[in-house]
Amino acid sequence: MSGEAIAKEANTAFAQLKVLTNTERSQALEKIYKSLKEHKSSILEANKLDLENAKAKNLASSLIKRLDLANPGKFDSMLQGILDVANLSDPVGKVTLAKKIDEGLNLYRVTAPIGVLLIIFESRPEVIANITALAIKSGNSAILKGGKESYQTFKVMSNIVSEALADTKVPSKAIQLIESREDVADLLDQDKYIDLVIPRGSNELVRNIKSNTKIPVLGHADGICSIYVDANFDPVKASRIVVDSKTNYPAGCNAVEQLLINKDIAGSEVKNLIKALVDSKVTVHVAPELKSLVKDLNQDYVVDADDDAFDKEYLSLDISVKFVDDVRDAIDHINKHSSKHTECIITENEDTANLFLKSIDSAGIYWNASTRFADGFRYGFGTEVGISTNKIHARGPVGLEGLMSYQYQLKGDGHIVGEYVGGGRNKLFVHEDI
Amino acid sequence: MSGEAIAKEANTAFAQLKVLTNTERSQALEKIYKSLKEHKSSILEANKLDLENAKAKNLASSLIKRLDLANPGKFDSMLQGILDVANLSDPVGKVTLAKKIDEGLNLYRVTAPIGVLLIIFESRPEVIANITALAIKSGNSAILKGGKESYQTFKVMSNIVSEALADTKVPSKAIQLIESREDVADLLDQDKYIDLVIPRGSNELVRNIKSNTKIPVLGHADGICSIYVDANFDPVKASRIVVDSKTNYPAGCNAVEQLLINKDIAGSEVKNLIKALVDSKVTVHVAPELKSLVKDLNQDYVVDADDDAFDKEYLSLDISVKFVDDVRDAIDHINKHSSKHTECIITENEDTANLFLKSIDSAGIYWNASTRFADGFRYGFGTEVGISTNKIHARGPVGLEGLMSYQYQLKGDGHIVGEYVGGGRNKLFVHEDI
Questions:
Q1: Contact between B407 and A211 using a beta-carbon 8 Å cutoff
Q2: If you measure CA to CA, which chain A residue comes closest to B350?
Q3: What global pTM score does this model have?
Q4: A134 and A72 within one domain
Q5: Which residues lie closer than 8 Å to B244 by C-beta, 6 or more apart?
Q6: Which residues pair with A26 in a beta bridge?
Q7: Which of A72-76, B181-185, B306-310, B355-359 has the lowest mean pLDDT?
Q8: B250 and B390 housed in the same domain
């Protein structure tokens, strides 16, 4: 089937899905939950094939780990995720504005699904369950395109989902699972039928998608996060936060990549802070002005900063370190070099913190807390669609809300514009909140 | 100056503008207001040159009318608009979510400006004042590119604005007015520095911009609005609404372009409804099944519907008319053919109305009210950035809110992820609303 045909079917299914009740949508999720649970063994068998393929191809161990659905607790938590989403409050039809325009003429702004989502992801097969749940709950159609690494798992799970939906009010074309052979480029051209693309995977994947579609893309290519350590700082907090931000999960987009240190901090304190990183096996890429300060540290973990050291996402146990003059210099540096994901200031001075919080143009701005907190689960959103570095629509960790739009409903009784001021006559608008 | 240099300067100015207080931003608007007021005569003189040029070139009278700042009340209402925006409540820094993540670790979602706006408009010179006010009030930088028709007015006004800003806290590069010679294509490439493009003008302008930039575009190309007249309808309301929607301002994007009539309505009533349009000098483009019904009407205003009659924006005293089987048929037709701007149902049946309100996938869905109400002023938003048919970010008539984004601020006291569940240890999150 062509990309256009797939997208058109998704769009038609959306029209049906849009009018279902919350109960009907949640029941479909419960059905999917049950079917996946029943077919656990066939899913894990298919997953085993994918794992064997991945090992045969010598894929990175981090990728293999992400692929593995048999990891303790992973399958069950995938299933539980579906029920959790089913039990969330209905995101559709919430009235977020109600205004009396005139007697008998009332305006309502009501939350509504966006339409058709195209979700492209790489290895993690549990994304199928997660995104299917989020899409159905929010009343959106979804076209899911998985990576070739999880092809076998994907094929089995997609059949189970399709069969499960056949028994529900949700049209089966509301969730279409496209196998690896299908042409993504063709789907990325369907801006007439597809409203939002959500890529979940490497920054190469996201960057490639962003430059090949007119459809809005929700996500982030890079996560170049920074920490600035102010002159007035607590060394214990600083070491804890810097080490956690770097080492808790270095491959995460919310891991810190740059450490900016106020130049007025005593050399011994700077050295201690960098030592905490080196002791945690982090390679520090130091700017020239710091070299003499770190010469006593284990030189296996100390290298010179490259020219692009401050425009780079390592995704590994590496960090770039430099001095800055003061908080303003740090702000300038971050606003120029960051990917607008998450930045942190470590300071005991509230005024300095507030200036930083106000000035930084990123989705997340932290004061004395690890950048690793930038995550939908940690923010308490229950579930996460992704993390967005866009500056319009959803920003930062995106929960179910990010899949919602709104519509204006105007209810009148024969009202016409021609009678009002600006429209030809003199009737005035009331404009009162209801 | 190159597009890149202009965009970069706007971006640098944004960093300064972002931290100004509401008072500082509003004071800059008052300064601009005073300067424009003082220089009224030189502005109107320049405007006269533009008008003479337009007349010499035989431009459409509707365009000339839009160009003319000397129209009674227009200059004063332009000035008043600046003060109105200055007096709006501060859109920056509103806390829209506050959550305790754990003891001493609090998350806030705070409204923030988007960044750098590129506004491209055609004739109306008052857009300069309007957009300058909106941009500064919301803390966004703006690059304004006017049409060649208003070049003289634009040049004078832009100098006045620049000089006025020199005396304020708003950096002068926060508002850059680009003359017609500058290359728009070059600016549309600056997705690194420009966050949102707002085109205000013809659908050709908008369509052209949408297909030539990776930057998100806020606006609408077409306004193909529909009215569906249900079997259970009030003929008086129907005539009033249909005639107002078509004739109140046919060039508006919120004017109706398609009339869908339930086929079960008596022929005489259908004829009366269409007669009301013909009596208002509207040319009705009728589908074949309606031809015999309208044969007694003034045939100067009755023509056959073309093949593309239901995918077309007339922007004139023309309307396409056809029968539909029922409300579901109308919904299907609209979801396929509309531009997702504004659609209306005329019915006395609440259930039918609710089905329509729930099923239509457009920014505005009206029950017994003219489509011409789709407008920021009529909605009570005070001012209007434009009307958006996008499905993400802002939708429908967009007020100041549409120029806002948000950021997450997390305030901790040395908190690290490694101690929490999911991060390596077992501490639980609190996730309580503050």
A1: no
A2: A411
A3: 0.93
A4: yes
A5: A416, A417, A418, B370, B372
A6: none
A7: B181-185
A8: no
To the nearest whole angstrom, how far is the Cα of B130 from the nearest Cα of chain A?
A: 17
Between CA A393 and CA A389 the distance in angstroms is 10
pLDDT at B133: 94
Rounded Cα–Cα distance for residues B193 and B88 (Å) = 28
- Nearest CA to A191 out of B340, B309, B365 is that of B340
Residue A257 confidence (pLDDT): 98
Q: Which residues contact A332 (CB under 8 A, 6 or more apart)?
A: B15
Kindly tell me if the per-residue pLDDT of A207 is higher than 90. no
Kindly state whether residue A323 falls inside one of the protein's structural domains. Answer: yes
- Which of B391, B421, B431, B432 has the most A C-beta neighbours within 10 Å, making it the best mutation to test the interface with A? B391
A431 belongs to a structural domain: no
* One domain for residues B169 and B243: no
- Whether A226 shows a pLDDT value over 90: the answer reads yes
pLDDT digits (tens, 9 = 90+) for A47-105: 999 999 999 998 888 778 888 998 888 899 899 999 999 999 999 999 999 999 999 99
Query: Does the pLDDT of residue B19 top 90, yes or no?
Result: yes
CATH code of residue A265: 3.40.309.10
pLDDT tens for each residue of B202-238: 888 888 888 888 899 998 878 999 999 999 999 999 9
pLDDT in tens, A328-387: 999 999 999 999 999 999 999 999 999 999 999 999 999 999 999 999 989 988 778 889
The answer as to whether B32 is a domain residue is: yes
Same domain, A140 and A10: yes
Are residues B131 and B231 located together in one domain of the fold? no
Partner residue opposite B392 with nearest CB, options A114, A417, A424:
A114
Cα B326 to Cα A352: distance, rounded to the nearest angstrom: 64
3-state secondary structure of A363: coil
Does residue A306 fall inside a structural domain?
yes
- Facing B405 at nearest CB: one of A392, A412, A413: A392
Domains contained in chain A, number: 2
Q: Report the side by side order of strands in the sheet with B225-229.
A: A432-433, A95-102, A105-113, A404-415, B364-369, B342-346, B225-229, B256-262, B318-324, B283-286, B302-304
Amino acid at B212: N
Minimal-distance CA residue of chain A relative to B340: A407
| A392 interaction partners in chain B (CB closer than 8 Å) | 114, 195-196, 216, 218, 392-393, 405
Chain B residues whose CB is inside 8 A of the A388 CB are none
**A156 and A229: one domain?**
no
DSSP state of A427: B
Contacts of B221 in chain A (CB under 8 A): none
pLDDT > 80? residue A325: yes
Closest Cα of chain B to A56: distance in Å? 30
Cα separation, B238 vs B368, whole angstroms: 8
Residue A126 structural domain? 3-218+385-407
Q: B233 and B100 in one domain?
A: no
Which of A240, A248, A393 is nearest residue B423 as measured by Cβ atoms? A248
> What confidence category does residue B122 fall into, taking pLDDT thresholds of 50, 70 and 90?
confident
Interval B149-193: pLDDT, tens: 888 998 899 899 999 999 899 999 999 988 755 578 899 999 999
Long-range contacts made by residues A427-430, C-beta under 8 angstroms, separation at least 24? A427/A102, A429/A101, A429/A102, A429/B378, A429/B380, A430/A100, A430/A101, A430/A102, A430/A103
What amino acid is encoded at B326 in this protein? D
Provide the percentage of residues in chain A whose pLDDT is more than 70: 99
> How far apart, in whole angstroms, are the C-alpha atoms of residue A250 and residue A61?
14
Q: Are B315 and B359 within one domain?
A: yes
CB contact under 8 A, B379 and A19: no
CATH (domain of B162): 3.40.605.10
Contact yes or no for A85/A95 (Cβ under 8 A): no
A221 pLDDT more than 70: yes
Q: Residues B286-297: what's their mean pLDDT?
A: 96
